[in-house]
Amino acid sequence: MRPHDRRSLIIILLAVVAALGTLSWQVDRLRPPSTLRLATGPEGEHEYRTAQLYKEFMAEKGIDLEIIPTPGSLEIMRLIQTGDADAGLMLNAANFEADNDDGLIALAAVNLVPIWVFYRSELETDGPLTDLADLRGRRVSFGYGESGTRALSRLLINIARMSESDFQIVEASPQESADQLLAGDIDAMLLVSGVNSDAIFSLLLAPGVEILNFELAETYTRLIPFLRTVTLLEGSLNVSARDPAEDKHLLTDAGVLVAAEDLHPDLQMLLLSAATDAQGKQFDLFPSDDIFPSTDDLTLPVSEVTADYLAQGQTPLQRYLPFWIASPLERFYLLILPFMLLLYPLLRNTPTAYSAYMRRRVFVWYKRVRALELGIHTYSIAELDEHIGELETLQLRLTETINVPTGYLQTFYNLRVHIRLVIDRLRERKAYLQALGLAVDAKPPEDGAATTLPLAPPEVDVAPSVKG
User: Fold this and answer.
1) What are the two backbone dihedrals, phi and then psi, of residue 96, each rounded to the nearest 5 degrees?
2) 118 and 193 in contact (C-beta within 8 Å)?
3) Model confidence pLDDT, tens digit, residues 361-399
4) Degrees (nearest 5) of the Cα angle 126, 132, 136?
5) Per-residue b/e over 175-198, b at no fewer than 16 CB within 10 Å?
6) Residue 19 and residue 39: Cα distance in Å, rounded?
7) 9 and 354 in contact (C-beta within 8 Å)?
8) Sequence-separated (6 or more) residues with CB below 8 Å from residue 261
9) CATH 3.40.190.10-classified regions of the chain
10) Residue among 395, 430, 428 at smallest CA distance from 413
11) pLDDT digit string, tens, across residues 148-200
12) Closest Cα partner for 186 from 207, 169, 198?
């Protein structure tokens, strides 16, 4: 094989190996992590219970979901920005209180979160309360400073042209606030959470506690466009007792699934699937499964993955294959096209190059056999012995030590037959010279032209063909 051909073949093989290695590295690099950290509100709150449903869904997909309870939405944002959480469930309004939203994206709004204002019934000296302004000067819990409840309460207070100094604010967790309200230690509390919250559930049917009816709920939604209104219907808590005694108009925010902007796209898709799967699995006084997940009125930039998910849902591979199989296959699909564009000319030329290499290898051996045959009438007995030994050594190599692909066996068998023919001729020539009584080193007399052997393998098969 000529050095140029050998270099070409080596370059092709190295390019194929490099391409395969690059593809393998890319697929492995793009494989999603097997764990995911999700920050939520305090234990016992609606968001925490929702996260537990996500955890069950993720476990079925082979992902270990770690739930991180926090005081509230602002802390959730901070944890994601510092890399201590990968995603979170928070209130849409919390972004207005954050110092910045760098590195955060919204996957989707996943549920309505009512804004509850509970107050002690003895405050109704002049009739039911209908606005936060009716709580001026009262002891009120608006949640922790890092909570979404606190952020939203500030927004509502500002819209109503008031300030926090108009209230005697008590900072406490949702359950602590509920206990203090029941004990009479505070006059009212505002909490933004689903009905499955332990704190809310303990207050809905508690005697001496009323729910504020926002008479200006529609006005608030005009001033704060991402808020909506819902109605707690008369008797919906207790039909026989007609509790509540009248319809209650409430404001709602949206619970938003947020994530770090560099979260693996497959995990983003899986979180959206978990949110969809969780719809309808918890009791809700204000069911809204038909409108979520949604990207309406979000206060954070929306992930590009969300548009694909809302358009088509889970991919076909994710629907029918385990997540740990579907994810790398989809990444492989995205990489295989450019890889094949690179590999195709290499694969196309490799058989041609290898075939040329094998033909040249056979040609070199045939050339040597041909040269020995052409000089047969010029060799002394000693030279004949030397050439016979050389050809027998080559014959042994071809038989025992050289690996020949199945597709080239016929050519090699033909070569071996022709080598045997030349060996026999050399031996006949040796016997002839010995019969003349020539010395071993003596040159033979001129006695005619040599009978020649074809340079290339003949077309006629002289040995059975073995198919690969």
Assistant:
1) -70, -25
2) no
3) 788 888 889 999 998 989 999 999 999 999 999 888 888
4) 70
5) bbbbbbbbeeebbbbbbbbbbbbb
6) 40
7) yes
8) 103, 104, 105, 301, 303
9) 31-314
10) 395
11) 899 999 999 999 999 999 999 999 999 999 999 999 999 999 999 988 899 99
12) 169
CA–CA gap between residue 268 and residue 88 (Å, rounded): 11
Instruction: State how far the Cα of 306 lies from the Cα of 323, in Å rounded to an integer.
Output: 18
Whether residue 244 has a cis bond before it, omega within 30° of 0: yes
Separation between Cα atoms, residue 442 and residue 433, nearest integer Å: 10
pTM over 0.85: no
Residue tagged 């309004």 (tokens)? 93
**374, burial (CB in 10 Å: exposed 0-12, middle 13-18, buried 19+):** middle
With H, G, I as helix, E, B as strand and everything else as coil, classify residue 397: helix
Secondary structure of residue 32 in the 3-state scheme: coil
Query: Out of 3.40.190.10, 3.40.50.2300, 1.10.8.420, 2.40.160.40, which CATH number does the structure's domain 31-314 have?
Result: 3.40.190.10
Place of tokens 């008369």: 234
Computed from CA positions of residues 349, 355, 356, 358, in that sequence, does the dihedral angle turn out positive or negative?
Answer: positive
Contact at 8 Å (CB) between 41 and 273?
no
Q: Helix H segments across 64-119?
A: 73-81
For residue 355, give both structure tokens: 């075939």
Q: At what angle do helices 381-396 and 323-374 cross, to 10 degrees?
A: 170
Rounded Cα–Cα distance for residues 379 and 139 (Å): 122
